[in-house]
Amino acid sequence: MKIAALTRLASYISRPSLASRTIVSHARMQSTVAPRRTPRVLPSFSLENKVCVVTGAARGLGNEFCNAFVQSGCTRLAIIDLKESEAKVAADELVQNACVNSDSKREDFQVIGVGCDVSSELSVQKAFEVVMDTFGRVDSVVASAGIVENYSAFDYPFDRIKRLYDINVHGAFFTAREAARSMIPQGGGSIVLVASMSASVVNIPQPQTPYNASKAAVRHMGSSLAVEWAKKGVRVNTLSPGYMLTKLTKTILAHDAELKKTWESLTPMGKMGEPEDLSGAIVFLASDASRFMTGTEVRVDGGYCVI
Ligand SMILES: NC(=O)c1ccc[n+]([C@@H]2O[C@H](COP(=O)([O-])OP(=O)(O)OC[C@H]3O[C@@H](n4cnc5c(N)ncnc54)[C@H](O)[C@@H]3O)[C@@H](O)[C@H]2O)c1
């Protein structure tokens, strides 16, 4: 009886009509509208007044990083991806979502979509020219563009191996170098290279030796560049995700339904991560909250690497 009564009471209270009536009468009583409450966070996590750039941001983790930046106050941002049309659509959607989820207006944002193949040095240089022409500075850059393929070592065609290194390794290097070229004259900035837990462990059962090696290279590239640029104010860190549910992994799982169960059983937290699970880490690394941190790897993998 007691539980039934409580359930009735709960459903009555949660009816929208009652909720809105309560708010209206409360507002009438007070005759003023309650001020909008902004969440209280440590100010150094804010990305207000920072220009952010994310590669591979038309979808997947890169796109989620952009969402996290906007939620943390960033209003000037460049979405870089292979196809300019997709980058522009993503830029438009980002602003649209930001306006729906807050009281911001379109004109509060300057978000651009830039087409660029990160495996081409010239293409990356041109993309940064567009960024600098548009914003005049760049504060936080994330190199997220990357690919994975699963071939056993004997079956992997060399042209595909080369393309993977061109995107994952050289793409990260070109992005970091152009970012630092812009950041050093302005006094510094933060660069985050997206590596992977595969930089530290050998994934099973799928074979992916060149991918694992490419991510180990990215992680050490981050530490090495961090030392080169430390006194110039440019910080370089790597973010290494575990198994996350994005287009990249969904493509692999589409061919093998059992694989998801295997990956989950190998992860101590027993599940794959959602892209938003990286939001806290990427905002921390991109913002002044991590200002004394450089050359470090942050792993967000549900505990995968510790067993
Ligand atoms: N998803 C995971 O589980 C996972 C785990 C660890 C690390 N990572 C790494 O995170 C990064 C992002 O992965 P994701 O899951 O978001 O992948 P995704 O395939 O969903 O998105 C990758 C994006 O990069 C873009 N891209 C690919 N080649 C490019 C190029 N040459 N130039 C410019 N853009 C290019 C794609 O168009 C796409 O928009 C990758 O570096 C990946 O290795 C992903």
From TrEMBL:
Record key words, sorted: NADP, Oxidoreductase
PROSITE patterns xrefs: ADH_SHORT
Biological source species: Boletus edulis BED1
Keyword Ribonucleoprotein set for record: no
Name of the protein in its database record: NAD(P)-binding protein
GO function terms (MF aspect): mannitol 2-dehydrogenase (NADP+) activity; oxidoreductase activity, acting on NAD(P)H, oxygen as acceptor
Gene Ontology BP annotations: carbohydrate metabolic process; small molecule metabolic process
Family named by the database record: Belongs to the short-chain dehydrogenases/reductases (SDR) family.
Alphabetized Pfam families for the sequence: adh_short_C2 (PF13561)
